Design the sequence.
């Protein structure tokens, strides 16, 4: 049972780098874990789908830019629960949504994860170039890491 | 007409805004569009060693890091006054050709193609790559994945990483390729040529042979008579990596070519009070407003523009397609913007042929892939053709090579004025005598953006029918007549 924990986002676009930062923390905790790989990724759509080939489960970590959420709020969704995958930077007009890309990959017979969870951290700003996170977003790292580790544990118990 | 001031808004809340003003007759007088930009890039670069920029600029938006990487690499060569040896240039161009195959393939099958193959009025859920697969057959999906895989493999072999290359340094490349690698690259390139031909045939069967689609291409919508620019080699054939930028007028006559360090003599930027965007225009012609014609300095940079600005393509199969293109569309230049989708496929074929040409060049496995810079760094410009338009990187450094200033004109920036004009034209089609046809307005406006394959803020990061957009229409007294919104 191969699992991929993937931090998504652009590490030089302010809070859009939160996914990478959370993944890096998880990588340290999971250094000796068997069958769990941790990585960082900056692309969406087809490239993201291609990155997921060969894994049974995946946890994606990304910044969210929904309305009415305070910066730093952490949530976890199943991929299917997220209605508009065009939101934020996970897809682009030069590409497809992850959902469409996954459908396509499955059509092609690619081995793609049965379960994809998405852990999100609400961003304050993702439009300005910076290697720094906003304070509220940075403060959410431990909580986001906890969510990822808990989900991994739940999944391994269910196995 | 009542005067209303539109302030450039610092935070556009992640969506595009269009303000439409009607005259006393209820027809469109003016349109103003504002879009969120990614900000602070120059500030982010200042103070860094200039050789970091090929790495950093690749992170600007993640869509064409390869283009930024190479424009930055060329700018760094210029800053250090060093000319890379021929094998290094060929390696870079080989990487770039493979990238073009990947990018144009993805664009056509995942975006442009669906718009076209499924039709611009097809329901949103069908206007994606799945719709195309459904219509054409399952095998096309496999080919698209294969083309991307081969492209990414070549980029990794030469550039060190699959998407964000890191091997271009001032004066050349950090490593070369072995004969074994070269053979693999050649093999993948030959597959790419066949795939490009297959794609053109598909376009021919599904689009050109359909009189309704052909009518759509030849029609007036999004047709503008502007200047066109694109990089050409010394024979005036399209080249994505190097050469001079050719500029042709709306009648197709070349008015000049400029080298990278001359761009300041040719391109100036016009400022409008209602937006932070600046509008590049041709200095020699001058800014006359958002209008067509040879007295207006508005120009376009795109696949269509590149074909219009060149005398042909340097590879035989693509050249044949080029001839057929202009023959079908009634001669040069072609002004109908929908033809950009076809132009893109012709470029796909050229890129694949060039891939094989370079992979079989005797110099490509040479050990001579770098010239060490010896001069003091000062200032330099690097220009490449990004898939969506001419990309210019201009850097200034101190004597240690630390960046003091940066100016970028990215692909889409070239087209800001033209996009404005297309948006206005779309609005005019749907608003007459005070009556707004809401159905279709947002879609057509969005199509105006997407034709240019834009690379900014909300437009980049959204999909057909899902671009966050708000359109406000006011009458001659400034009262709001209608507000149309999608995804915001």
Sequence:
């Amino acid at each position: 049972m191969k699992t991929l924990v993937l931090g998504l986002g652009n590490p030089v676009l302010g809070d859009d780098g939160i996914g990478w930062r959370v993944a890096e923390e998880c990588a340290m905790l999971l250094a000796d874990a068997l069958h769990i790989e941790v990585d960082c990724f900056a692309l969406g759509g087809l490239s993201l789908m291609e990155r997921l080939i060969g894994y049974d489960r995946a946890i994606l970590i990304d910044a969210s830019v929904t309305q009415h959420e305070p910066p730093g709020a952490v949530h976890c969704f199943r991929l299917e629960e997220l209605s508009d995958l065009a939101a934020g930077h996970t897809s682009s007009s030069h590409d497809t949504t992850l959902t469409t890309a996954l459908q396509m990959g499955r059509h092609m017979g690619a081995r793609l994860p049965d379960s994809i969870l998405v852990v999100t951290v609400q961003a304050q700003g993702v439009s300005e170039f910076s290697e720094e996170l906003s304070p509220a977003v940075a403060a959410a790292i431990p909580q986001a890491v906890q969510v990822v580790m808990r989900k991994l544990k739940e999944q391994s118990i269910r196995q | 007409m009542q005067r209303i001031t539109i302030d450039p808004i610092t935070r556009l809340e992640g969506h595009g805004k269009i303000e439409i003003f009607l005259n006393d007759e209820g027809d469109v007088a003016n349109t103003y569009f504002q879009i969120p930009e990614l900000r602070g890039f120059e500030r982010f670069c200042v103070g860094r060693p200039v050789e970091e920029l090929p790495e950093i600029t690749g992170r600007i938006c993640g869509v064409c890091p390869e283009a930024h990487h190479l424009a930055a690499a060329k700018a760094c060569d210029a800053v250090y006054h060093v000319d890379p040896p021929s094998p290094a240039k060929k390696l870079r161009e080989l990487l770039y050709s493979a990238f073009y195959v990947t990018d144009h393939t993805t664009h056509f099958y995942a975006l442009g193609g669906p718009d076209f193959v499924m039709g611009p009025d097809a329901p949103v859920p069908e206007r994606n790559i799945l719709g195309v697969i459904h219509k054409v057959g399952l095998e096309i999906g496999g080919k698209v994945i294969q083309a991307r895989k081969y492209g990414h493999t070549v980029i990794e072999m030469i550039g060190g990483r699959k998407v964000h290359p890191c091997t271009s340094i001032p004066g050349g490349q950090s490593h070369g390729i072995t004969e074994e690698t070269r053979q693999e690259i050649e093999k993948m390139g030959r597959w790419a040529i066949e795939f490009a031909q297959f794609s053109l045939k598909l376009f021919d069967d599904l689009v050109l042979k359909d009189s309704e689609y052909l009518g759509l291409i030849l029609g007036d919508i999004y047709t503008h008579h502007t200047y066109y620019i694109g990089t050409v080699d010394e024979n005036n054939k399209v080249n994505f990596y190097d050469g001079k930028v050719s500029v042709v007028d709306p009648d197709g006559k070349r008015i000049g070519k400029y080298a990278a360090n001359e761009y300041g003599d040719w391109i100036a930027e016009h400022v409008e009070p209602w937006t932070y965007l600046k509008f590049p225009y041709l200095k020699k012609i001058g800014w006359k407003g958002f209008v067509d014609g040879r007295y207006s300095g508005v120009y376009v940079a795109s696949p269509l523009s590149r074909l219009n600005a060149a005398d042909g393509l340097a590879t035989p199969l693509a050249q044949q397609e080029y001839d057929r293109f202009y023959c079908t569309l009634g001669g040069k230049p072609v002004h109908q913007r929908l033809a950009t989708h076809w132009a893109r496929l012709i470029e796909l074929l050229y890129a694949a042929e060039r891939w094989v040409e370079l992979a079989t060049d005797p110099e490509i496995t040479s050990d001579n892939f770098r010239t060490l810079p010896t001069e003091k760094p000062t200032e330099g410009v690097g220009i490449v053709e990004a898939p969506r338009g001419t990309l210019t990187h201009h850097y200034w450094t101190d004597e240690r090579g630390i960046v003091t200033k940066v100016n970028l004109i990215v692909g889409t920036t070239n087209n800001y004025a033209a996009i404005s004009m297309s948006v206005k034209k779309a609005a005019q089609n749907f608003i007459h005598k005070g009556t707004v046809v809401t159905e279709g307005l947002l879609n057509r406006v969005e199509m105006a953006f997407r034709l240019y394959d834009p690379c900014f803020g909300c437009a980049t990061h959204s999909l057909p029918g899902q671009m966050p957009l708000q359109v406000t229409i006011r009458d001659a007294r400034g009262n709001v007549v209608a507000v149309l919104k999608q995804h915001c």
